[in-house]
Specification:
- 67% of the residues lie in helices and 1% in strands.
- It has 298 residues and is mainly alpha-helical.
- Strands 1-2 form a two-stranded antiparallel ribbon.
- Strand 1 and strand 2 form a beta hairpin.
- Helix 4 packs across helix 10.
- The termini are far apart.
């Protein structure tokens, strides 16, 4: 008979499971529900992208083919729409849109950044009421304020002036930028600010060298959204501008005339006007996704 080890004896070796043979590993197949959700996501994405692809195809057709009902998908391709668009002289309108969008976006970020700092890192009393007041200014329809804005511009002799549009675009986008940047700045660790104060950094240097690099994705996301809103704005530019300060959306409305709708030309013009926004979105895609998800999880 073999001797039984004592109760308190420590075993010299511990039993370890034998390594699993790689051939025995079975990869888990995705469930049917996940596969159906994936297919549904692709279908929804294609439905959203279908109008863009259709507009792209129509822009390369002649007006006679673009106006057919039902449309002729396999009609011969042509650059007639793009030639007509560039022959109409769109460069002043594109330059006005670029100027108004860039300058107003820069002013919005310069004003919204310290305001968001005051509402997040150094909160004022009743900061929620302040944020709601900022956001409530976006609830007024633009058409309700277009008459006072027109009368102010008429009395101040700034009708058809690009700088008046810049001021209005800045005021229009400032509440959204403050609201967004406030959620981003709330994620900044307090220890970083305390370390900057110990080192003797001033408030301006703290904002510029400590906080701004940390929340740069959020700043990029807010700036891109403000740029898109300014670039696409039509009503204010249509009413308050004329031949000098007209923007790209106003220029696009000129293709709808009493003679009819030139569909191929409008599609070509719409694609060209959309290119700056698409380029800005693709250039800041990583920072945009990171910035939009930065303040989502608290």
């Amino acid at each position: 008979m073999s001797a039984t080890p004592a109760t308190g004896a420590t075993p010299t070796s511990s039993a370890r499971p034998a390594p699993m043979d790689p051939s025995e590993i079975h990869h888990r197949k995705p469930p049917k529900k996940a596969a159906l959700l994936g297919v549904l996501a692709w279908i929804v994405g294609l439905l959203f992208a279908l109008p863009v692809f259709w507009m792209l195809l129509t822009s390369f057709h002649k007006e006679t083919d673009a106006a057919k009902n039902p449309p002729d998908v396999f009609a011969p391709l042509s650059l007639e729409g793009y030639q007509s668009f560039f022959a109409a002289g769109p460069w002043p309108a594109l330059l006005n849109s670029l100027t108004a969008s860039l300058i107003s976006t820069t002013l919005v970020i310069l004003l919204a950044f310290p305001a968001a700092y005051a509402l997040s890192i150094r909160p004022v009393r009743k900061w929620t009421d302040v944020l709601f007041f900022f956001l409530s200014t976006k609830m007024l329809p633009i058409v309700a304020g277009i008459l006072p804005l027109y009368l102010i511009a008429q009395k101040a002799h700034v009708l058809d002036n690009i700088w008046y549009l810049i001021i209005l675009y800045t005021a229009m986008n400032l509440p959204i930028a403050i609201w967004m940047l406030r959620s981003f700045l709330a994620e900044v660790p307090v220890e970083m600010l305390e370390a900057a104060q110990v080192d003797g950094a001033s408030l301006n240097r703290t904002l510029r060298d400590v906080i701004a690099p940390v929340v740069m994705p959020g700043i990029a996301a807010a700036a891109l959204i403000c740029f898109i809103f300014s670039w696409n704005e039509l009503l204010l530019a249509r009413v308050l501008t004329g031949t000098v300060a007209g923007t790209a959306p106003v220029f696009l409305t000129g293709f709808v005339t009493s003679q009819g709708l030139f569909l191929a030309k409008v599609c070509a013009a719409s694609l060209v006007v959309s290119l700056p926004v698409l380029a800005a979105g693709f250039a800041a895609q990583d920072k945009l996704v990171q910035g939009l998800s930065m303040g989502a999880v608290r």
